Amino acid sequence: MRVGLKNKVLYGIGFVLIVILVYGWRLGMGIAVHSDETCNIFVGFDMFQGNIFLKDWFFSTGIFGLTTLELSLATLVLGYSDTIIYIIAAINYTLLIMACVYIVKKTSGEGKESFLYSIIVVCILIVPRTEPLLNAGTHVLSYAVSVGAIYLTYGLSNRICRTWLKIVWGGILGFLALTNSMFLYTTCIPIICVGVLIAYKDKKELNRYQMLTYGMVSLIVYAVLKRTWEFLRGADLGGINTIFVTRDGILNHIVIGICNILELYGINFWGENVISISTCRSIVGLFILASLMCETYKFLKSNRGKERILIWLFLFMALVNLGAYIFSTVPAYSPGTNLLQPFLIGFTTASILSWIYNVRNNISKMHIRLFGVASIIFLVIMLPAFTLKQPDNSSKQQAAEYLVENGYEKGFGAYWDAASIMYEAHGNVIITPVVSDAAAVTGDARNIISFRWMNKKEWEQQEGNFLVVDADSAIQYGINDENILFTFGAYSDIKQFGDITVYVWEENKKLLDY
Q1: Is the C or the N end of the chain the one with fewer CB within 10 Å?
Q2: Contacts of 289 (CB under 8 A, 6+ apart)
Q3: Whole-angstrom Cα distance, residue 330 to residue 344?
Q4: What SS3 class is residue 456?
Q5: How far apart are CA 333 and CA 321, in angstroms?
Q6: Tens digit of pLDDT for each residue in 245-299?
Q7: Exposed, middle or buried: residue 7 (CB in 10 Å: 0-12, 13-18, 19+)?
Q8: Three state DSSP letters for 325-390
Q9: Whether pTM exceeds 0.70
């Protein structure tokens, strides 16, 4: 078998195995299909029906363009199915891992030791550090595209390209940033940073401004497209305005950022017994993180030729993400490791590439094998639960069946129930996500109002005769009996499906404007 064909077969086998593992891990962790994923489907359907600029939609942190198209197209072609969403989530995560593996394998060349680098990358990245990486409706697909875009930009920077090509590629990067704001921080801004670095250091290079050109064009195109889109739709693309943290809070954000980085690499022994699995995991994770930092430092100190550019790109992916996290108000509403995932991706890839270049002329096989064994141990002790049995989502399915069978078409629900029950009802009911003023803090604490988070203006203005809420959401969003009675009056019936409660009224009700 030829080497090229052999590698393709290995990539194919690896891809399938990782999809199966990630699929089983999500099911094992009991993450049922929820509103963060299904909301994207209804946004996509609205686009297909002609609402290209998504007028009258209230978004969360922004739009998830690539994921929205992916999920909505899959649903149109294959129909409503929880299994499809689980598989798409697994494929997206696998695409991210395989993109990093491809770059590392391509850089390390052919040879027995080169496969160890790929195995190490898989072992570090494959175990999800937060549940959102196992969701279909988050930034994961954008991260995978970011890795590929960085590699392609690096390839273009090594050749003298015509002006039109620079503008086209920069425009593509800017458009991708529009589809997901995280792409701006994981690709466009790192490219600008590296472009400035090259222009400053490589003064003898004829094309030293090429990388900077790609980054600047992407930023200009992104800004123009974003303003145009917001002008045409009459509202911002995101529901949260990210601002700089106050001086009093910066120290706390630095501590949160450092702790989250440690957790990304499995170093999380806070409050654990000295002798425990968590401590063992932390020790191995600390060895891995320290080794990666050491190899990166060695490479940066050597200051090699053009090959350093790729490492800089991934390193700035990590650093820009960390800086944006620490110096903004993001930790206030997302203090976990979720939005620091690009640091794990960027720093791990940059460090492994540094290691490859460090030992290229002086291969220390023992060091590579020791690190490979440590990575495999790290993987084993961090493995999540695995099963091929889907989580119990019967309560939402039963609630959806009840609403459809009894002719209910429009109503209200807590955020985590609204879109997911709409999905289980195959879009035959429209449920407006709601919250109480006790949680929203906008007026009378007893009122239940529209929750402007992945919601549509048309939905919040509709009249409905039912409300669905689960026990956890009742606490999180303040939707209790007192608030329900104050807003809608006495209900005519109440149904219970597992943890889902369905309140129904004989006449239609409407939410208060605010």
Answers
A1: N
A2: 262, 265, 267
A3: 18
A4: strand
A5: 16
A6: 777 778 888 888 888 888 888 888 777 777 777 788 888 888 889 989 998 998 8
A7: middle
A8: HHCECHHHHCCCCHHHHHHHHHHHHHHHHHHHHHHCCCCCHHHHHHHHHHHHHHHHHHCCCCCCCC
A9: yes
